[in-house]
Design brief:
The protein has about 425 residues and is an alpha/beta fold. About 35% of the residues lie in helices and about 20% in strands. The chain folds into two domains: about 10-215 and about 335-415, Aminopeptidase; about 220-330, Alpha-Beta Plaits (2-Layer Sandwich). The protein starts with 9 loop residues before the first helix and ends with a helix. The chain binds zinc ion (ZN).
């Protein structure tokens, strides 16, 4: 096995992660850098300045994805299908410092090293920054636009987390809706893609393993279930005559972990939102709406989870004498990642003396949109205590450096170095 020829400049990468981590930092301790917010715009400007400083060229597509390349690459090589690597700069509200930022900045660091050392490769390597990964407007907006595209009507119908229309926010930020609707990637323009990301779960840390080689990204389903009963006086209606929507919804929420356990130990189901009407302490709830989010690495099991959730909701509604509305969105299928890229990642980790394990990703990533089109891989590094999407999200600098070096080696091998 060939020894690594190049390593990342770890102090520079750490300085970048630290600087970016100051943008959008709030008093609560976390980072508010939701897409198209002032902080997100500042972060993009900061990223563009880093690219300019390094002498790299940047192209922005119709939805604001940034594609960074080295202008020193010979025209004949630059015309070949590229190796892409990147992630996102946006965060969830009060999120952490490493989700997205690590993959975006490590990819930039890898490209900088290849560029500044004048490493000649058979294919161009590009760093990419995807717009709105966290889905303020649409789940994985930037990579979804590349993979399948959005019509004007779809873009016009998008409403943000804060109730604002995507069209208004996007055009105010200088975006052009027609260009956004025309954004697509030609799969022939790509040779492979690789994304470095924090695990966002506890597995690597618990097992004391340095690198996760992601085998695939779980399938995801979800939506809302609404139990409908009758509003009555809280003091005068005997317990035996109530049609209490919230009591039924409570029984449903309690049943969710049991459904997951019955299907598989890799199944997860979450209810993260409950809304009760009319919402008064002295009125029996007429309606109770609960969210459901369910995930599994296999499509058949995603379907089994959905069927079990529907059955359970209907049975509980019947048991309590209520009506139920089940409104689940079309599920997102699991995205298996490329076996060839997985092999390269595992071999490159081993060549640096790092331990690795094959594992699925329970979280969604832009890579799942690229995976059906082009050979795609993902590298995970440990999250301390498995925490993510919160201010405590953290990864040791040693793991940051290890992950970035495995990414660099993988990109060089994929690009024919
Ligand atoms: Zn992420």
């Amino acid at each position: 096995m060939t020894a690594p020829v190049l390593s990342v400049n770890a102090p520079r990468l750490i300085a970048d992660l630290t600087d970016l981590g100051c943008i959008g930092r709030v008093e609560a301790g976390g980072i508010n850098r939701t897409s198209f917010s002032a902080a997100d715009t500042e972060a993009r400007g900061w990223y563009l300045a880093r690219c300019a400083e390094a002498g790299l060229s940047v192209r922005q597509d119709g939805v604001g994805n940034l594609i960074v390349s080295s202008p020193a690459v010979a025209a004949e090589i630059a015309a070949r299908p590229a190796v892409w690597s990147g992630s996102h700069l946006d965060t969830v509200p009060n999120g952490g410092q490493f989700d997205g930022a690590l993959g975006a900045l490590a990819a930039l660091e890898c490209l900088r090293r290849i560029h500044e050392e004048g490493i000649e490769l058979q294919r161009p390597v590009c760093a990419i920054m995807y717009t709105d990964e966290e889905g303020s407007y649409a789940h994985l907006l930037g990579s979804s636009a590349l993979a399948r595209g959005f019509s004007r009507a779809e873009l016009e119908a998008m409403v943000g987390r804060d109730g604002d229309r995507f069209v208004d926010t996007f055009t105010a930020a200088g975006g052009d809706l027609d260009a956004a609707a025309q954004t697509r990637i030609d799969p022939g323009a790509l040779h492979a893609t690789v994304e470095l990301h924090i695990e966002q779960g506890p597995t690597l840390e618990e097992q004391g393993i340095q690198i996760g080689v992601v085998s695939g990204i779980v399938g995801l389903g979800g939506g809302v279930v609404t139990f409908l009963g009758r509003a009555d006086h809280a003091g005068t209606t005997p317990m035996s005559q109530r049609r209490d929507a919230l009591v039924a919804a409570g029984a449903f929420v309690v049943a969710l972990p049991e459904i997951a356990a019955r299907i598989s130990d890799r199944a997860v189901i979450t209810c993260g939102m409950v809304s009760v009407r009319p919402g008064s302490a002295n009125v029996i709830p007429e309606s109770a709406q609960v969210s459901v989010d369910f995930r599994h690495p296999e499509q058949g099991q995603v379907e089994a989870l959905e069927a079990a959730i529907r059955d359970t909701a209907r049975n509980i509604a019947a048991q309590y004498g209520l009506q139920v509305g089940i409104d689940l969105e079309e599920s997102i299928p699991p995205a298996p990642l490329d076996r060839g890229v997985q092999k390269i990642i595992a071999a490159r980790a081993a060549a640096r003396g790092l331990s690795s394990v094959s594992m699925p990703s329970g979280a969604g990533h832009d890579s799942q949109n690229l995976a059906p089109l082009v050979p795609t891989g993902m590298i995970f590094v440990p999250s301390i205590e498995g925490r993510s999407h919160c201010p405590e999200e953290n990864t040791s600098w040693e793991d940051v450096e290890n992950g970035a070096n495995v990414l660099l080696d993988t990109l060089i091998q994929l690009a024919g170095g």
